[in-house]
Specification:
The complex is a heterodimer of chains A (about 210) and B (about 475). With about 210 residues, chain A is mainly alpha-helical. Chain A is built from seven helices and no strands. Chain B has about 475 residues and is mainly alpha-helical. Chain B has 19 helices and two strands. A two-stranded antiparallel sheet of chain B has the order 1-2. The radius of gyration of chain B is 21 Å and the shape is globular. Classes of the chains: A mainly alpha (about 210), B mainly alpha (about 475). At the A-B interface, helix 4, helix 5, helix 6 and helix 7 of A face helix 5, helix 6, helix 8 and helix 9 of B.
Chain lengths: ~210, ~475
């Protein structure tokens, strides 16, 4: 069951790499939030009930509801719709994403360590690479923001692989979520859009040599 | 169990809150002063009574943390005093917010220095991002907003990557303990490829704090946007926090089968940082960015020192310690320059020798110290690194470093001479405290030169303890 959810999670990452509409980004982040919630419930059922409640509540409220809601608000507030037309083609993005997936699978195969859950490790690595690809190849700041959230979700997924033994690791991942995502999303919503009228990275070039 | 570290953090947070709520400038200064006195007392305690003590489970007053804590206790009051003059036109809310964040930044950095647990180090490094971001945004201009956005975004990405590395290492943890000591035992039995991935992720993540390749850019932007006295802390004590975090991972890796590979990665990161520092020192047209690229260059040298290992690792620690005093002095001097010209543009400022003789002398002496001319302690550290490379027959590396250092020497000296002697093309304004502030910055430089001349025994013993693991 967990494996099927993890595979679905991979599908959301592949779809993220080809879609250009920001509305779809927000929807995919919602799906990722719900998938992470289900994985947490199935994976962490043996930990202390209080820790489980904390993780589930955070995942539900924060990842499945608050983050997608804030993303939609940002789309509406800044009147942005889709990725810059001059950006990378969908086919190119798909190829890059598949290369990242294959690279992650190869690294996991080479590591082949029984101290880790290999499916979680592979998908987390793929999420990290997908996030970095989004940040590097997309031109709009909103896509960069989603790239960061993708990396964060990947980190959270991997923390669940070890969370059964060490719940503190999941709590730290949650700390990262709450502090940094709120800060970034909040700043985007309240400052960036209003003050510099930013919807692509070329507007953020006044601080340079 | 000793709880001194916990008390320190609690009292510091209370003082930060009092600073943030104070209603007058005098009260803000009062609360912040109490903090810096407490910090100095804490540093002295960690050297004497606290040496080697484990505190609040997650902290240990070891030589590594203590050396950098003492440096912070020396440098931060200077930054604090210079800030008063820098922020004299600010209103009370801005003034108290700035000081509150400075107090919190110093507290978070102290926790990073003394942390004996990989997870706790990560948590407090994350905390430094929030404090530093507030300081960077202090002027509330579009440029500072852009720099703050970039700082938070890149640091968050870096910190998330580092956390993935921490998680990867954690899977090897024995009995769930994330202390460096137990991880040191665990990595010995770990799959080498696995350890390599963890190290790459952690180094890439922490590079945003240590200001080396690949995420060095963000430190440069942060120093550019932050007020100069705050930049003197961000470019030294915060960079040292990144260095300490990397040093602890480096020590962890020393017991693993991949240590040689780790050293090669550090050499590569150091060389690329040195190349970037050398090239951008020529290119930039802003004195604060110029000093920031010098930090990238110097931390690159420190990374090379760690990579070479042996005596060079010893020299790397000395290099970072000396760099703290010299670079903070330089940033404070540049803050004084700004109080006279109201800007940092390299191609417009000049005649500084006429306008502030003491400040100009401080800048020239600081540049010489930064360029490792004797009796600068950087001369000792760089010489030791090069000697170790010669002993190991790494001639190609020596040739590359020599070439890059020649570019650095030319760039730094030509820029400082330009500021001091070339005709001025910028407007000036009266700065009644400039001479006094310049003298105070020279005190830090003097401290570095005394260390370079004498290389005291206690410092040698300290660094021996840090590198002999």
């Amino acid at each position: 069951m967990i494996l099927s959810l993890v595979i679905l999670y991979v599908v959301t990452l592949v779809y993220l790499s080809i879609t250009e509409r920001f509305r779809h980004y927000a929807t995919l982040m919602t799906y990722q939030g719900w998938l992470l919630l289900l994985i947490a419930l199935l994976r962490l059922h043996s930990i202390h009930w209080f820790d489980l409640l904390f993780v589930v509540t955070e995942t539900l409220i924060f990842k499945a509801i608050v983050v997608p809601m804030m993303l939609r608000r940002i789309i509406k507030h800044n009147k942005i719709n889709r990725e810059h037309p001059a950006g990378r083609s969908q086919f190119g993005s798909l190829m890059l994403s598949i290369v990242a997936l294959v690279a992650s699978a190869c690294i996991t195969y080479l590591v082949a360590d029984d101290t880790i859950n290999q499916a979680f490790f592979c998908v987390s690595l793929y999420a990290l690479l997908s996030g970095l690809i989004l940040i590097v190849t997309r031109r709009r700041l909103f896509a960069h923001l989603v790239g960061f959230l993708v990396i964060e979700n990947g980190v959270f997924l991997f923390s669940m692989a070890m969370g059964v033994e060490m719940p503190i690791l999941i709590n730290m991942a949650i700390l990262l979520d709450i502090v940094m995502s709120i800060l970034l999303l909040g700043m985007f919503l309240t400052k960036i859009g209003d003050r510099i009228k930013v919807d692509d990275t070329e507007s953020l070039t006044s601080v340079k040599d | 169990m000793d709880l001194t570290m916990l008390y320190y953090i609690l009292v510091a947070v209370v003082l930060a809150a009092c600073t943030g709520l104070a209603r007058s400038r005098r009260a803000v200064v009062g609360f912040a002063s109490v903090f810096f006195v407490m910090q100095a007392v804490f540093a002295v305690w960690s050297v004497t009574a606290g040496a080697g003590v484990q505190s609040a489970q997650f902290f240990t007053f070891d030589a590594t943390g203590t050396l950098f804590m003492v440096l912070m206790a020396i440098v931060s009051p200077f930054a604090f005093v210079h800030s008063f003059d820098y922020l004299r036109d600010n209103n009370i809310p801005e003034f108290r917010l700035y000081n509150m964040l400075m107090v919190l930044l110093c507290t978070a950095v102290a926790a990073v220095y003394f942390s004996n647990n990989i997870a706790v180090t990560w948590i407090f490094l994350e905390a430094t991002t929030i404090c530093a971001a507030g300081i960077i945004y202090h002027r509330r201009s579009p440029e500072t907003l852009e720099a703050t956005w970039k700082y938070i975004f890149v640091c968050s990405t870096g910190i998330a990557m580092a956390y993935l590395g921490v998680l990867t290492l954690s899977s090897a943890a024995i009995e769930g303990s994330l202390s460096y000591e137990s991880l040191c035992e665990a990595v010995k039995q770990c799959n080498p490829l696995y350890v390599k991935i963890a190290f790459l992720l952690i180094l890439a993540g922490y590079s945003c704090k240590m200001e080396i390749f690949p995420l060095y850019t963000i430190g440069v932007d942060a120093n550019f946007a932050a007020p100069a006295p705050a930049a003197s802390l961000i470019s030294t004590v915060l960079v040292n926090a990144g260095f300490v975090a990397v040093l602890r991972i480096y020590r962890l890796m020393a017991s693993s089968a991949v240590f040689e590979w780790v050293q090669n990665v550090l050499i590569l990161a150091g060389i690329v940082s040195l190349v970037i520092g050398a090239l951008f020192l020529r290119r930039t047209n802003n004195y604060k960015r110029f000093l920031s690229y010098s930090t990238v260059e110097n931390m690159g040298i420190a990374a090379i020192g760690l990579g070479v290992g042996g005596v060079a690792a010893w020299a790397a620690v000395l290099h970072v310690a000396a760099h703290t005093l010299i670079k903070s002095s330089m940033f404070l001097q540049i803050g004084v320059v700004r109080s006279i010209y109201d800007g940092y543009r390299i191609n417009r400022l000049g005649d500084y020798m006429q306008l502030n003789r003491v400040g100009a002398a401080g800048l020239i002496l600081g540049a010489l110290a930064l360029l490792a001319f004797p009796p600068s302690p950087l001369f000792v550290s760089e010489l030791m690194i090069l000697r170790e490379m010669m002993a190991e027959g790494q001639w190609w590396l020596i040739a590359v470093i020599f070439l890059l250092l020649c570019i650095v020497i030319y760039s730094i000296f030509s820029r400082v001479i330009k500021l001091c002697y070339h005709p001025n093309q910028s407007s000036t304004r009266p700065a009644p405290h400039a001479t006094g502030l310049s003298w105070s910055a020279i005190v830090l430089l003097g401290g570095a030169l005394v260390i370079g001349l004498t290389l005291p025994e206690w410092l040698k013993v300290w660094i021996d303890q840090i590198v002999n693991f």
